[in-house]
């Protein structure tokens, strides 16, 4: 199986079909952003949207449940998953999958606990709740802390992992790859606001899921079936590879870390983090937002 794995390295260069697919994909994103931006502008001018700020940051609170669910899923999945999580899973085993499976109750908690409070309070952002419940200082502290976390733990990692993929597949240097990612994302985000982001992420969800299954098919074709994989890792003396929960003395993923460590952080990410919460707050109403979280939990 080692020779079959090594043979995959020869196919990691973009061909003409790959470039055409990428160009069509980005054109689709731009078309969606332009359409959403025009619709929002027309609604503001005609009076159907009361506030231009609400139209931009909350997509006029008009997002249906399926788009909410797809957006929640896509906003959580990034290049760090395809590089870091997938690579770690290949090395350590399926226990890494708990980061996705374990998030399911947290997503539902957002929909059925946090979201009704946010939407009934008529908030523009999740930090606004702290301002309304406590004071402006609390909101400012959360905003500053969130920005620092975004820059140093989320955006930087996502861009680094993204440029690794682009550099490997297209022979672009790292700086150029990062610039392409930043500019491409900024274009459709600035043009259409949250509405453009939500609907482009719905398209991205389709691409992620279909592409993931395609990659899975090619991987199984080149490495053999599940039984061959089991035998391979048994030969490598890695008997915990196919166990989701590992013993408490496991050096990397003990079950105690998942149960107590993961759930001390995940509720903040899924219930307070602005990137996630904003998608749910853009729903048509609370029911659409709750249905959206159910869809996101199913996709997880």
Automatic annotation (TrEMBL):
Pfam families: SSF. This is Sodium/solute symporter. It comes from the Eukaryota. Belongs to the sodium:solute symporter (SSF) (TC 2.A.21) family. Keywords: Membrane, Transmembrane, Transmembrane helix. PROSITE patterns: NA_SOLUT_SYMP_3. NCBIfam families: sss. Gene3D superfamilies: Sodium/glucose cotransporter. The chain crosses the membrane at residues 16-37, 98-119, 139-162, 174-196, 202-220. InterPro entries: Na/Glc_symporter_sf, Na/solute_symporter. It comes from Aplanochytrium stocchinoi. GO terms for molecular function: D-glucose:sodium symporter activity. It is a multi-pass membrane protein. GO terms for cellular component: plasma membrane. It is found in: Membrane.
């Amino acid at each position: 199986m080692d020779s079959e794995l090594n043979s995959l390295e020869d196919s990691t260069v973009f061909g003409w079909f790959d470039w055409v697919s990428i160009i069509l994909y980005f054109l689709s994103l731009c078309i969606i952003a332009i359409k959403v931006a025009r619709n929002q502008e027309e609604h503001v001018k005609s009076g159907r949207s009361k506030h231009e700020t609400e139209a931009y940051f909350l997509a006029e609170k008009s997002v249906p449940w399926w788009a909410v669910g797809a957006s929640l899923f896509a906003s959580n999945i990034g290049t760090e998953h395809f590089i870091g999580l997938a690579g770690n899973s290949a090395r350590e085993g399926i226990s890494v999958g708990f980061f996705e499976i374990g998030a399911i109750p947290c997503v539902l908690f957002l929909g059925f606990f946090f979201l009704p409070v946010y939407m009934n309070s008529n908030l523009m952002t999740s930090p606004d709740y702290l301002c309304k419940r406590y004071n402006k200082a609390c909101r400012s502290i959360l905003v500053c802390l969130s920005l620092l976390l975004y820059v140093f733990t989320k955006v930087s990692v996502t861009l680094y992992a993204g440029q690794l993929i682009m550099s490997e597949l297209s022979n672009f240097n790292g700086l150029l790859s990062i610039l392409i990612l930043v500019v491409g994302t900024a274009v459709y985000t600035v043009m259409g606001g949250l509405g453009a982001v939500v609907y482009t992420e719905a398209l991205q969800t389709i691409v992620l899921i279909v592409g993931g299954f395609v990659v899975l098919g090619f991987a199984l074709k080149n490495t053999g079936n599940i039984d061959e994989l089991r035998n391979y890792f048994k030969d490598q003396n890695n008997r915990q590879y196919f166990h989701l929960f590992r013993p408490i003395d496991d050096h990397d993923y003990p079950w105690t870390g998942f149960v107590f460590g993961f759930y001390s952080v995940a509720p903040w990410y899924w219930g307070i983090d602005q990137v996630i919460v904003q998608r749910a707050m853009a729903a048509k109403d609370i029911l659409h937002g709750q249905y959206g979280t159910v869809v996101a939990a199913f996709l997880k």
